[in-house]
Design a protein that fits this description.
CATH architecture: 3-Layer(aba) Sandwich
Strand content: 15-25%
Number of domains: 1
Order of helices and strands: EHHHEEHHEHEHEE
CATH superfamily: Gcn5-related N-acetyltransferase (GNAT)
CATH class: Alpha Beta
Strand order of the largest sheet: 1-2-3-4-5-7-6
Structural class: alpha+beta
Largest sheet: 7 strands, mixed
CATH topology: Aminopeptidase
Shape: globular
Helix content: 25-40%
Number of helices: 7
Radius of gyration: 16 Å
Distance between the termini: 31 Å
Length: 196
């Protein structure tokens, strides 16, 4: 079955934020900066996703699969700085969603930025609506980016805080190149790369 993939327009950002909030509801990399959890954690996760991609949506780096069942952000080599600039600009919007003025958010994402390769196709986020998982949507979005990386003769790179995801991404040729924590209480993050 072929999964249709299209570029995300600005009008689709709210739908993307909603799907990603459901897909990342239990992801420690997303939840830890927004502690304490509370009853509104899902809403705060959705607002976070709505904020961080606002600055890059017009660059055609965000992709939608199967009419909104899943979304991925694939950053080509040389454009990671633009992603991180967009993320930095969004921190002012994320700060009110935290109890520490986004201090944990800054610690985590500055640390991740320091460990992110510039010479790769960077899979910044991949999320599939939980009700649509297991139907090939995530696989299609991964292959979509890997095909672009292969065309450019570049490796691909990602990070995950879900240990079970490591084996999933290994099926696509990713290998762990580093893992660690931004601070003692931060979640463990696996950084993965294809190729050499």
């Amino acid at each position: 079955m072929t999964v249709p993939i299209e570029v995300v327009t600005r009008e689709r950002l709210p739908a993307m934020a909603a799907v990603l909030a459901r897909a990342f509801a239990d992801d420690p990399m997303i939840r830890w900066p927004l502690l304490p959890a509370g009853d509104d954690i899902g809403e705060r996760i959705e607002q976070t996703f709505g904020s961080i991609y606002h600055g890059i949506v017009d660059l055609e780096l965000i992709w939608e699969a199967a009419d909104g069942d899943g979304f991925a952000v694939w950053i080509p080599p040389g454009m990671a700085d633009q992603m991180f600039e967009s993320d930095a600009a969004a921190r002012e919007l994320v700060a009110p969603l935290t109890d520490d003025g986004a201090a944990r958010y800054d610690v985590l994402w500055s640390w991740i930025e320091a460990h992110t390769s510039e010479d790769v196709w960077y899979l910044d986020v991949l999320g599939v609506d939980p009700a649509k998982q297991g139907k090939g949507v995530g696989s299609a979005l991964i292959r979509f980016g890997l095909e672009r990386a292969a065309r450019d003769g570049a490796d691909a790179f990602l990070e995950t805080a879900i240990e079970a995801n490591v084996a999933y991404y290994e099926r696509f040729g990713f290998r762990t190149v580093f893992d660690g924590r931004a601070s003692d209480d931060a979640p463990r993050i696996w950084f993965m790369r294809t190729g050499g």
